[in-house]
Design a protein that fits this description.
about 280 residues; eleven-stranded mixed β-sheet
Length: about 280
């Protein structure tokens, strides 16, 4: 009888716990059910050969180079809150400006902090002169760059990074996402932790440059510049290494490790992954 009584109590407690958790989930799920979006158009002078800097936390960054002498930006602000009124009010508190600083143009984003059951994202779509140095940072969002000549440094944590028709010294980094570079020229440092990396050099790229490509979980594919010349160090833990190029091997060669020279070995080529294969062509 006593066991039956305690069984009823235990069942009742379990039901209460389930109902409580369901209520918490429901409340949490409904806390940001309203969304308000607005865009801001900005423009400022930016001479070719200058630098542009942008940093956001939640949101993507897209940069396109063009034959212009200014910076034209569309900032998309998305606010989420419990009600439409709260979302619109939150969106109105976000300010995006372009601030000149020497030969740089800096994107400044002012927004409320310590938000409870509310969130804000700011995505940037920017047109700059073709010859512009870039410094781009986001945490949750993709980064996309096209038609730029200059020094490029772009970082995200959760998102893919892509570039097209980019020339200069390039450093692209992400933690969770792929990195893809098409029609590139110049020295590059490409890095991811969870994602594949692909880099394809143009047929007009200089034959001597330094290339470093590192990921942990993902494959690597590289199309080198014509008549490429570099010292090569490639390694993988779970995968294979394949190359279409004539490499003079030095030291030991194995399925997962390769050290040697392409051409006269003037540049540096470092390829490294843990879980994935490597292809060089």
């Amino acid at each position: 009888m006593k066991n039956h009584y305690f069984a009823k109590i235990s069942l009742g407690c379990l039901l209460c716990l389930v109902m409580f958790m369901a209520g918490c989930i429901s409340i949490s799920g409904c806390s940001m059910r309203a969304t308000y979006e607005r865009t801001v158009q900005l423009s400022a002078p930016l001479s070719p050969g200058s630098a542009f800097k942008a940093q956001t936390h939640n949101g993507s960054i897209k940069i396109n180079g063009a034959d212009v002498t200014d910076c034209n930006m569309t900032a998309t602000i998305v606010a989420r809150a419990a009600t439409d009124e709260e979302a619109q009010e939150l969106s109105g508190k976000v300010k995006v400006t372009l601030v000149p600083s020497g030969n740089r143009l800096i994107t400044k984003i002012d927004k409320p902090t310590q938000l409870i059951n509310k969130s804000v994202s700011v995505s940037l779509d920017v047109e700059v002169p073709n010859k512009t140095d870039l410094e781009l940072v986001t945490h949750n969002g993709a980064v996309e760059i096209s038609d730029i000549t200059g020094r490029l440094n772009a970082t995200t944590h959760n998102g893919k990074v892509t570039s097209e028709r980019v020339s200069g010294t390039t450093a692209l980094n992400t933690h969770n996402g792929s990195v893809t570079c098409g029609e590139i020229s110049g020295s590059t440092q490409l890095k991811s932790h969870n994602g594949s990396i692909k880099a394809f050099y143009t047929d007009t790229a200089p034959s001597v440059c330094d290339i470093s490509i590192i990921t942990h979980n993902g494959g690597i594919e590289l199309k080198t510049p014509p008549n490429f010349s570099a010292r090569v160090n490639a390694s993988t833990h779970n995968g294979s290494i394949n190359t279409d190029l004539p490499i003079t091997v030095s030291g030991k060669i194995s399925k997962s490790s390769l050290t040697g020279t392409i051409g006269t070995g003037e540049g540096q080529l470092h390829l490294e992954t843990h879980n994935g294969s490597i292809r060089i062509r």
